[in-house]
Fold these 2 entries.
Entry 1:
Amino acid sequence: MKRTVIADALKRTDFGADVNVKGWVRTRRGNKNVSFIALNDGSTIHNIQIVVDNAKFGDEALKPVTTGACLSVTGKLVESMGKGQAVEVQAEAIEVYGTADPDTYPLQKKGHSMEFLREIAHLRPRTNTFGAVFRIRHHMSIAIHQYFHEHGFYYFHTPLITASDCEGAGQMFQVTTLDLKNPPRDEAGNIDYAQDFFGKQTSLTVSGQLEGELAATGLGAIYTFGPTFRAENSNTPRHLAEFWMIEPEVAFADLEDLMALEEDFIKYLVRWALDNCRDDLEFLNNMVDKGLIERLQQVVSTDFVRLPYTEGIRILEEAVAKGRKFEFPVYWGCDLASEHERYLVEEHFGRPVIMIDYPKEIKAFYMKQNADGKTVQGTDVLFPQIGEIIGGSVREENYDKLMARIDELHIPMKDMWWYLDTRRYGTCPHAGFGMGLERLLLFVTGMANIRDVIPFPRTPNNAEF
Ligand code: 4AD
Ligand code: MG
């Protein structure tokens, strides 16, 4: 008999029909005469209840039906008399695809810690929480493509292997086929990358932006969406060494356009989650974070604050003067820590903040310089619980100004002639931003640690699975 996905079976009302469902046993309870099996196949957070007349199958046949076992169950779909479900299946035939020895299967009880589940990341998709998180991750990915498609952006694929450091932070993972024990050297004794695979030193990309700008200056509006790598040794609940970044880039956009895009984009995604991931959000709201759904609803219905950096510093300094303690010092020119960002968002304004006009010293070389000579048109979108969820900017489109900044920072431009060509030929005002998919997911799922919103996290000292 053809299999019915459990999400569909739970919606059916043609009671008395024969059905086949397949899935993994979440729990089995009951008594001498009857067993109740909660079966889940990942199509929904909800299990379907299988009712088994023990005598019909015999104890021996039912012995392998334990938590974690995989079953194919054929039987009658009936209206459930019990609480908590509308339909159930009265089992007529049970095939055990795979047993799960109760003595060794690690997912026995409910309420394992997130830390423990990270150690068994190969099994955690079988839990309610991670099922919900990964279904929402899928939905957010689809919504991202849908948003850009609806708004006239083209999906543009940028390379993962690159010879340029977009953010200039030197946090790159090197890609090489050289013999690390005995690399070729030039006359000065330095490693001779001319003999490496690509004929130059290469790394995994920290951002697709530079190539994205090339595309935007031809296609008008593009976005990238792919893996991004950062060798920053920061063991925080918000940093991964491998994450997924979405980077739109738009020709002819100014600061106002950029901020409007950032706000509209995030609201669209959060609304999508509220409209399409209701069951999973309700589960997470109950089990993980009681304020989750309310926070999501709040974000879609409030205007984001636009806040110049200088004004933000003034607010923080005022708070310090009134006795608010921060771990890191606040002064004009400092790079805000997430405690500062969260103070502004959660305590001072009570809604998301788009901070703009940062000191040029703390931002990347490509940001458009303001007339004051001190600040640049960078935008960070700051969110409750998360801090920075988006980083973006208007780009410096003036060749001479851009070169002056590059010289000031001693950025080696030998390999970036192609980037400068956008400013040399038909340069145009343009802007863009980057959003980490996992930062968005932290917000949308209410999960506390970024390691728990990506299937197999890559962090310092951790590349298991
Ligand atoms: O602020 P960032 O470094 O900006 C850029 O990379 C620009 N090139 C983007 C652009 O303008 N096209 O990174 C952008 C976003 C951050 O706001 C954050 O959401 C995410 O990427 N991000 C990380 N997420 C997880 N782990 C990390 N180590 C991250 N670093 C950045
Ligand atoms: Mg940033």
Note: Residues 128-150 form the longest helix (23 residues).
Entry 2:
Amino acid sequence: MTRSVVIGTGSCLPKRELTNADLETMVDTSDEWITTRTGIKSRRISGHGEETSKLGAAAARQALDMAGLAPAAIDLIIVCSISPDMVMPSCACLVQKELAALNAFAFDLNAACSGFVFGLDVADRYIKANPAMKILVIGAENLSARTNWQDRSTCVLFGDAAGACVLTGGEEEQHGLLATRLYSDGRLWQLLSLAGAPSLNPDLEYAADNGAYIKMAGPDVFKIAVRSMGEAVNSLLAQEGIAIDQIKLVIPHQANVRILRSLAEKLSLPFDRVYTTIEKYGNTSAASVPVALDEANRRGILQRGDLVLLCVFGGGFTWGAALLRW
Ligand code: ACO
């Protein structure tokens, strides 16, 4: 049976660092509040030449290098993002241009912070249909462009980043992407939203909304995130007949360290098996899981045969989990 195998990972962080001390000079907040409520100490913020597509392309180049592939070998580019450079063209087409990956087709996928796991699932289905395909799945975000810098309840949370992986088909039964579980529930969308540009058609309901920045009911999102990710993980593990103590590393969406601690407790998982980058990068939405995956991979934490579990939650709501054997 064909399985999708990760043959390269990469990541790219903008150069500029914004610390909690910097934020203290911008809004009424404190390092103590941000650290105790979120676990975040710092985040990266993009500047000139660090558009979402540029970060995504830089992460992709690293993943291609690790895979030993030229850009022309890529058949499909999926960019998962809620902060693309433009609505049209897609960020994926701009990444394709940057890479000169001219044999690929390319499209964006929006599942908010869950995007990367949704992207893996889509890539897996192409690879199952055609195992020779080489697919780049990229999570890339410039949330700094979609943050209300006067709103202390959100502006301390987010950062910019991109992470990428290259997948192709492998024939080993127990090696690669073993399973995914994806979920959505649009009914509670207003708890976490990001409007687009105002409508030029005044009759449309969203015409009056000119706030193209993230709005969030933090405490509600917190509770639903813990419950949903916990259920997704338990249901995936039950489906695959795998116990949580067989998992080497859990790489969750990095929204808040308290969410991650609550999740670990719910899963009876020792916290040292939860990989975190939240302290240095904040919440980078669809980029958070691939950045963490690349970091763990490059540090040599993941050995061939290890079981790795990804779990995500984001606006929509969307959530899910993916199980890989490295
Ligand atoms: N500095 C100081 N005080 C603050 C700040 C700040 N930056 N932000 C809020 N406060 C204040 C509030 O005004 C409030 O004050 P009040 O009691 O006088 O009214 C108090 O702190 C408590 O506010 P809460 O919102 O109840 O704080 P909470 O402990 O819930 O933490 C947080 C807020 C960090 C946002 C938390 O709810 C959270 O992490 N939620 C989940 C975020 C998340 O998972 N997002 C999902 C993904 S995002 C995406 O998809 C793009």
Note: The pocket of acetyl coenzyme *A is lined by residues 29, 33-34, 37-38, 112-113, 152-153, 156, 192, 214, 216, 218-219, 221-222, 225, 255-256, 259, 283, 285, 314-315 (CB under 6 Å).
